[in-house]
Amino acid sequence: MRIIRYELDGREGRGVLEPSPTGDLVHAFGPEGEGDNAAGDVVARLDEVTLLAPCDPRTVVCVGSNYACQLEEKGRPWPERPALFLKAPNSVIGPGAAIQAPPEVERLEYEAELAVVIGTLAREVRPEDAMDHVLGFTCANDVTAHDWRADGQWARAKSADTFCPLGPWIETEPPEPGSLTITTRLGDRVVQQSCADQMIFGVPEIIAYVTRWFTLRPGDVVLTGSPAGVGPMVPGDRVTVEIDGLGALSNPVALRR
């Protein structure tokens, strides 16, 4: 099932996206008692709505240096435990919204990531129970102001407005997360491509580790790291993160005014 957030006639809504011979249709959620996120009445066609970020997280927890291919590319040792950092909620935008490059930034980078969306409250979760707390998965771009890492902490480098595109929807029944291929394109040029089986710490391990320190609530997001090939983007570019079975998240890059 694909869960979306959207804007239609100036109003925001949540619904279920279902295929149709005449184009994908947006359904309202069905009445309570018909199953979690059951599809109700048709609201509009997909091309009649503006997709928003598919969730509105209070907390976005990220894992750094989590792909073997990236560590090999950088010549770094494997971590003993997940390296965690946060992105602020103000950084979240949806498909098609512009990534705003601050004029002071010398190098703005894309980082394609598999994003996990939490479905039920998660605190001190065991790895074997972790997937019970997952609503689904979506695409993410961990936008980073590379030169701002020199601050000594990453709040500014990771959390400026528009630095966390998410979307296009939450897929509740994806293929096995470790088998997903992640591809990033700048325009038509492929700049990142790897399989999530390159992750050092898998989704259950990450959720278990994160929830030792952070209580995660429905709608919160965990970013699982980016593969090799992280690189620069500039105003005028369009960056697209595509993950098998999860769709494509595409955003233009514009100069912040």
What would your notes on this structure say?
- The chain has 257 residues and is mainly beta.
- The protein has 2 domains: 2-52; 60-255, Alpha-Beta Complex (Fumarylacetoacetate hydrolase, domain 2).
- The protein is 9% helix and 42% strand.
- It has helices at 68-74, 155-159, 203-213; strands at 2-8, 11-18, 25-29, 39-45, 50-52, 60-64, 83-87, 92-93, 99-101, 108-110, 112-118, 134-141, 144-145, 164-171, 181-186, 189-195, 221-223, 231-233, 238-243, 247-255.
- Belongs to the FAH family.
Task: Name the descriptors.
9% helix, 257 residues, 20 strands, mainly beta, twelve-stranded mixed beta sheet
CATH topology of the largest domain: Fumarylacetoacetate hydrolase, domain 2
Q: Give the strand content.
A: 35-45%
Q: What number is the mean pLDDT? A: 94
Q: Helix tally?
A: 3
Shape: globular
Assembly of the depicted chains: single chain
Number of strands: 20
**Low-confidence stretches at least 5 residues in length (pLDDT < 50)?**
none
Radius of gyration: 18 Å
Give the biggest sheet: 12 strands, mixed
The H/E string reads EEEEEEHEEEEEEEHEEEHEEEE
Helix content: under 10%
In a nutshell, what does this entry contain?
The protein is mostly beta strands and 257 residues long. 9% of the residues lie in helices and 42% in strands.
Give the SSE map.
Layout: E1 2-8, E2 11-18, E3 25-29, E4 39-45, E5 50-52, E6 60-64, H1 68-74, E7 83-87, E8 92-93, E9 99-101, E10 108-110, E11 112-118, E12 134-141, E13 144-145, H2 155-159, E14 164-171, E15 181-186, E16 189-195, H3 203-213, E17 221-223, E18 231-233, E19 238-243, E20 247-255
Parallel strand pairs: 6-17, 8-14, 9-20
Antiparallel strand pairs: 1-2, 1-5, 1-14, 2-3, 3-4, 6-7, 10-13, 10-18, 11-12, 11-17, 12-14, 15-16, 15-19, 19-20
